[in-house]
Amino acid sequence: MNYFREFLLPLSGLSAGVHTYRFEIGREFFAHTPDSEVSDGSVQVDLTLHKQEGMLNFEFAIKGTLLVPCDRCLDDYMQPIEGNYRLIIKYGDHFEEESDEVIILPLDQHQFDISALLYEYLVLLLPIKRVHPDKENGDPDCNAEVLKKLGQHLTPSEPDPRWDILKKLKTD
Q1: Closest CA to 86 of 44, 42, 47, 43
Q2: Which of 35, 60, 63, 99 is most buried, most CB within 10 Å of its CB?
Q3: Terminus-to-terminus CA distance in the chain, angstroms?
């Protein structure tokens, strides 16, 4: 059984107008995605599809949380995500990605798999630096043992003596 079957949208036989879809993405989605950096999550994707003559306009509204490793302590934590994406599909002679938002599909293609696009959108919504959010008192919520070990391995940085000459140039 193909898990991603629910993400295959029928294109042929779809009437002109607005069509809406809702997808719930969780652990199973990421388990079926090879080399996924996300291990779990709870994400809701609302898709609005506007079918027009010779063109499809997809609007994705994504909101939820993803389980990702912390860059500081390597413990997993839930990272909230939220965002919107737009995709335009035009019909042509062959498959081509014109840009990030425009794809050309062959006229004989009868369905479109959005699973890879959804995974890409989810990963793009993750921040570059992924760390546990701080506690209410301002302390890091990371694994205390790991932070202690990191603190033991820090070497105190000595000021570079070459800067001393420049300090003499300061005029007050």
Answers
A1: 47
A2: 60
A3: 76
Global confidence as pTM: 0.78
Residue 7 Cα distances to 3, 16, 23, 104, 163, angstroms? 9, 20, 8, 19, 60
Walking along the chain (172 residues) 10 residues at a time, the average pLDDT comes out as: 79 86 91 85 94 90 94 89 93 83 85 89 92 80 79 74 78 63
Report d(CA 141, CA 160) in Å as an integer: 33
Pairing status of strand 76-92 against strand 102-106:
parallel
AA letter at 52: Q
C-beta separation of 84 from 108 below 8 A: no
